[in-house]
Please model this.
Amino acid sequence: MPDRLEAGGSLMVTGFQLGIVIAASVGGILVDATSVMTVDAIGIALLVVGALLFGLSLRAPRPARA
Model:
């Protein structure tokens, strides 16, 4: 949205806030259903997977430009 920067920025902020709300809700439900240690283990596993995917994305070959 290059011509509507304020609207684009507010959509980004709303998306981040929605992500925080969903993650906090799921985390709270998991803590109530299991334990804090389980939620920590899931968080660590997701962190490792995310870091690996990020690292692999940096090494992906880039297509040659014509």
The radius of gyration is 18 Å. The helical segments are 5-33, 36-59. The chain is about 80% helix and 0% strand.
